[in-house]
Amino acid sequence: MATAVRLLVLFLLFLSSPNPILSLYEDQVGLMDWHQQYIGKVRHAVFHTQKTGRKRVVVYTEENVLASLDLRHGEIFWRRVLGTNDAIDGIDIALGKYVITLSSGGSILRAWNLPNGQMVWESSLQGPKHSKALLSVEKGSKSKKYNIVIVLSRGCLHAVSSIDGEVLWKKDFDAQSLEIQQVIQLPGSDFLYVVGFSGSSLFEVYQINAKNGEMLKHEIASFSGDFSGELSLVSSEMLVALDATGSSLITISFHSEQISFQQAYISHLVEGFSGPAMMLPSPVTGIFAVKINTVTVFIEVTDKGKLEVLDKTEQPTVISDALSFSETQQAFALVQHEGNKIHFIVKLADNWGSNLLKETIELDQQRGLVHKVFIHNYIRTDRSHGFRALVVMEDHSLLLLQQGAVVWSREDGLASIVDVTTSELPVYKEGALVAKVEHNLFEWLKGHWLKLKGTLMLASPEDVAAIQRIRLKSSEKSKMTRDHNGFRKFLIVLTRGGKLFALHTGDGQIVWSVLLHSLRYSDRCQHPMGVNLYQWQVPHHRAMDENPSVLIVGRCGQRSDAQGVISFVDTYTGRELRSFGLVHSIAQVIPLPFTDSTEQCLHLIIDADKHAHLYPKTPEAVGIFQSELSKVYWYSVEADNGIIRGYGLKSGCVGKEAGEDCFDTRELWSVVFPSESEKIIATVTRKPNEVVHTQAKVVADQDVMYKYLSKNLLFVATVAPKASGEIGSATLEESWLIVYLIDTVTGRILHRMSHHGSHGPVHAVFSENWVVYHYFNLRAHRYEMSVIEIYDQSRAENKDVWKLVLGKHNLTLPISLYSRAEAMTKSQSYFITHSVKTMAVTLTAKGITSKQLLIGTIGDQVLALDKRFLDPRRTVNPSQAEREEGIIPLTDTLPIIPQSYITHALKVEGLREIVIVPAKLESTTLVFAHGVDLFFTRLAPSKTYDSLTEDFSYALLLLTIVALVAAIFVTWVLSERKDLQEKWR
Amino acid sequence: MAPINGSKPLVLLFFVELCVSLFSTAGAISPAYGDGYTIYGRVKIPQGLGVKGFALPGKISNVKILLNGGQNITFLRPDGYFSFHNVPAGTHLIEVAAAGHFFSPVRVDVSARNPGKVQAALTENRKGLSELVLEPLHEEQYYEIREPFSIMSVVKSPMGLMVGFMLVFVFLMPKLVENMDPEEMRRAQEEMRNQGVPSLASLLPGAGRS
């Protein structure tokens, strides 16, 4: 009977066993994930307001995003993310309903429907050479026939119909050396003027009929000096150019029969002039601006070509383009900084002296300087003209200013994240900041009662809405204190704008943001850029009172030998603790597994001369490091030369007065790949914070295999030089992919495998003892994924029990990388449908939970794929024992189950990276995917076996218990009665 | 996969059914100005077949067409046509990224010797295409569908199991006990007492006397 009961229970358990696919119900969206949409730093904006309908502004950004924003709230109406090598050169609105974009260096012209962003037409423009790409849409005449877009692209002038994208005429400029600078179209005339330089001192003008492209006039004039190539149109017949030395201005009048030049030295105009000048785009007719060092000088051009200085200012100033807001009037805007305030000034074009509008706005200091301003006018209720300005800030954020206030702002810096790390939240303390008050017991019960109704499908639509609201608004997830499960953390993100943000993992809110002082433009550091983030101080037991902090590493320029910059930021408050420019460059940063007495992590910074510098620069840190010096090895990958080198360290820098914290390196080994046949395209190592739970793997036939677990393994993929480009660039015979597993301490190649007829790009992940990599198979013309698992054979004989009992095993022997490793590898390959942008693998606190691969697909979705699908022991017909172990029968293609997209129906546009952070709860891992959009979710690769699910119904549990207790009493009474009857009988 | 009819145009169906020999030819290419060719194609997303309307059927404004893993990206025109310009001769891969639909990547051979010829084939099932008309292989449903309320789901829940188990004990056990041989019963009781397993009765107040 007992077996019968057990069988029944087993059967019931089987019935209730969860679906093996990780999946989500539609009403669970937003419970543990959040998604934020951004566009990036705006490069240009075009306003579009009709008398009726929605007011919008169309922008394009440095992330190649074309977007239409709501002018009232700053929300995105629609957005199109173009390819990475399809940068937009120009944008305009034609016919009042199409957005015209010119992209890819002027070779692609597209029209987009303004209300919904549907592409209407696309034309490809071709020409003989690269040149400036310019776009101008005919605006002057009102006649319907005149819907021409004039495009300068690849050295040719094209007139394109804005209705269907048909090229109406094309004018090829034969002169090879002609550098066209501007295409001038005068309002109300049919003539186009194309002006440019030929060589350094020849100035050319072409007059062209805009209707048919017929060339009417061509004039060349030679100037005695050299032009710098900068040109500004100041009036309908006058241009101002700068000479090559940047010390004199040349006024060119080109309408008259003869082109005439007039040269004026800036030193005559501006007192105390020094250094080369820079032209700023001319705001309006008759006025142009020149920037000399930090001084902006406004110069007026009189009718006779005489130059007069109108104004000069030392404050950082940004000028908008001209805006014609009525039939006759033109205005432009200036934004000037003064302390932490900005002045927004609108002036009429013909009246410099007075301001049409002057507003002073206080701005958040963390936004930095104004980089760009775009103005737009509107008609107030009293029929006067009002102006609003769209301002792009140094931190890439976008603000709309109107009536002296910031109407809305967008943190678009988050569209270009450089690096991500996490930080714990403060521990709950009395008085610590807690986002919301716990709601009371009644509300709690009410919530659960509603949930119960939902489970039993008794809820009315209002109830369903209420349930959804309660679930989404759960104050639990956005609290500002540490939680037991480790779900709540700060995501510390560094953006390309040099700003550091702390995002709360609960709901994605920005907790603090700081514009890093060290990553701002200065005379010493002309092109600062943030590179990496590291955890600097992670206090947990010795220094609990310290706040955690992060290390930000940057450099002044693209090259790796540029001067380095480091900065430290407190992650609770967002305060920049200290920052300094380094005397050396930063080529590589190695976080060391040692901490000092204040729990600061030791970091080794390798400079371009291969000297190692230890941080923090304290005697204590040096002392700790000195004792471990002989155990520290590092390697460098020189992808261009095809060399991987391994190094050791020795104390003291030779020939340098640097202190004790500088170490010399000695080369230990190098692996040189033949440059004519192999090119390194991918290298990947294990995550340093990965935890492995079991060293051995028990396979089906009670056999044990020991995983080869070394933190010092490097996976290297090389391809044939021809096959390193895009697909289609190499033929089957001339492409191959070779993968290596290299020990980075000894330089030994543990495994080498080649895939013939395979092509890059290669994306790989390395975890525990396996590597999974994705590449293109030319033979099948499909993408393929391969897995390599590496096992340690030297410990294989330990599985004999008798040896263990008698102590004849080698488990207690110290494992040294110098002892000859007997590694055994297994591998297998599978087809996969999608192209991959990035790959990651889940990481949990203790490494017990099974692994999932997270694949960022070309469609900007993130697919979770169980590691069991990539098991080299899969066979077509697994035996019964193997099936029990969980081996899936072999198929040639990896399955794509739509329910296992962790981004579900959302897209992470422009996906670049997937960041994995383990939670404290073993079953769960936190996933943060970023690109132009941000997406965060929690993932449980083996289901949440160690906690109840979100939708667990406590009310149903209570009800069941009550029912059980009631049943107990009923049966007790019944049994008592029966007993009594028995006794009476 | 046997060749049936090489020139019959594709009809708007869920699957490319009338497709034929592995590589059939199609005139979707034209020599262009500079160094490359132009690939013209069309994406057809079945209208109205989208049953679970999470992705609006026919919403093609955000469909991306990708050449060679993102080297070139283009969008669809309102009529579903797309084109790639300046494509060099060779073998290329076209992918379609459309939320809610699963498209097979397409292998496209652009012939240098014979301009004006393109060969296309789906890589998923190696079907050739006579025209470069791409249709989704199937729809993608990103969410689990909540099953309507059924008594089984309650029974299968842990609470349901508890109740069910108890009911079994309350109503079936006495029956089983009744049917038992008294001798065996006594022996079982003896055993239980020896093991000291707390019986249900002993847990209840006033029942411990027996």
From TrEMBL, chain A:
Record keywords, A-Z: Endoplasmic reticulum, Glycoprotein, Membrane, Signal, Transmembrane, Transmembrane helix
Localization in the cell: Endoplasmic reticulum membrane
Annotated Gene Ontology cellular component terms: EMC complex
Topological category with respect to the lipid bilayer: Single-pass type I membrane protein
Major place of residence: endoplasmic reticulum
Domain ER membrane protein complex subunit 1 C-terminal positions: 767-984
Family: Belongs to the EMC1 family.
Quaternary organization: Component of the ER membrane protein complex (EMC).
Protein name: ER membrane protein complex subunit 1
Organism encoding this protein: Rubroshorea leprosula
Automatic annotation (TrEMBL), chain B:
The organism's place on the tree of life at top rank: Eukaryota
InterPro entries assigned: Beta_sandwich_EMC7 (IPR019008), Carb-bd-like_fold (IPR013784), EMC7 (IPR039163)
Main location: membrane
Transmembrane segments: 159-177
Signal peptide: 1-28
Residue ranges that the Swiss-Prot or TrEMBL entry lists as coiled coil: none
Membrane topology value: Single-pass membrane protein
UniProt keywords, alphabetically: Membrane, Signal, Transmembrane, Transmembrane helix
Location relative to the cell: Membrane
Record domain ER membrane protein complex subunit 7 beta-sandwich: where: 60-162
CC annotations in GO: EMC complex
GO MF entry, a single one: carbohydrate binding
Pfam family, one: EMC7_beta-sandw
Similarity comment: family membership: Belongs to the EMC7 family.
PANTHER family per UniProt: ER MEMBRANE PROTEIN COMPLEX SUBUNIT 7
Protein name in the entry: ER membrane protein complex subunit 7 beta-sandwich domain-containing protein
Source species of the chain: Rubroshorea leprosula
